[in-house]
Amino acid sequence: xxxxxxxxxxxxxxxxxxxxxxxxxxxxxxxxxxxxxxxxxxxxxxxxxxxxxxxxxxxxxxxxxxxxxxxxxxxxxxxxxxxxxxxxxxxxxxxxxxxxxxxxxxxxxxxxxxxxxxxxxxxxxxxxxxxxxxxx
Length: 136
Prior knowledge:
Elements: H1 2-9, E1 19-22, H2 28-36, E2 41-44, H3 49-60, E3 64-67, H4 77-90, E4 94-96, E5 110-113, H5 114-130
Parallel strand pairs: 1-2
Antiparallel strand pairs: 3-5, 4-5
């Protein structure tokens, strides 16, 4: 986790970093790590990843969110900066190097406008209220 944090910290186009994790007891160690290193942490639903990331973005007062998953230890700060520049230049809702896959595994990131994340959460809430299901 420290390695990924250090890599993202080296980005020139990112204002703040927040670790987003679940409220599950198994992830207490992640919050402990974040607190030990003075990294803000947001905890939310394990199953509702969109709401969790939206909560982290709102906690930061962000207009956009760069998402780097914990299984991307090879993330390159220059690649993220290139994506952020593209995101800002094109005024788009979403930029990623995941689909289509343009970089090897471990280099993936996604960038969202926070208002787009809010729309995703709202649509998801509407859908699941009509078609509820249980997680297994």
